[in-house]
Amino acid sequence: MTQRLRAALLATTLFALGAGSSLAADLSPREVARNTRCPVCGMYPALSPQWMAQIVFNDQSASSFDSPVDLFRFLNNMIVFDKRHTSADVGAIWVADYGTRAWTDARKAFYVSGSQARGPMNEPNLPAFASRAAADAHAKAQGGRVLTYPDITRELIKSLGNAHQH
Fold first, then answer.
1. What are the residue boundaries of the structural domains of the chain, listed by start?
2. What is the spatial distance between Cα 51 and Cα 120, in angstroms, rounded to a whole number?
3. Predicted structure pTM score
4. Which of 12, 37, 57, 88 is most buried, judging by how many CB atoms fall within 10 Å of its CB?
5. 151: which DSSP letter?
6. Each residue of 59-102: pLDDT tens digit?
């Protein structure tokens, strides 16, 4: 095999493997181990799968939360809860669908504020849903109003109980 052919094969192989270009980070949700603790309140998210939330950072690490409210508390004050990451490091944000427990993109999810559903610490929370129809059905059955990600303000989060705000 000639030198030129070897060089061409090597270049083609490296290109196919992604060398020389940044590979896309895997920002899919991570498994939440039973001993994983919420960085906001210290509870174990795996014990309340319908309430879980998670941030996957661009460095492939993740933080898991026992509820959407604690997720938003974290996002609103990251410097208190995480000394390694900033908001620029957030790659993906996930919430569990309250009905199905499947992960859904938090930025596309629908939340119900003011329903009878109580979070893991038995205080008002934000059950999350992958579809508007599921959120509407929950609100109809348990009260509350349906919100989208941009509707979740600092003021709303502060109003949803302060049993463990830091």
1. 27-159
2. 7
3. 0.83
4. 57
5. G
6. 999 999 999 999 999 999 999 999 999 999 999 999 999 999 99
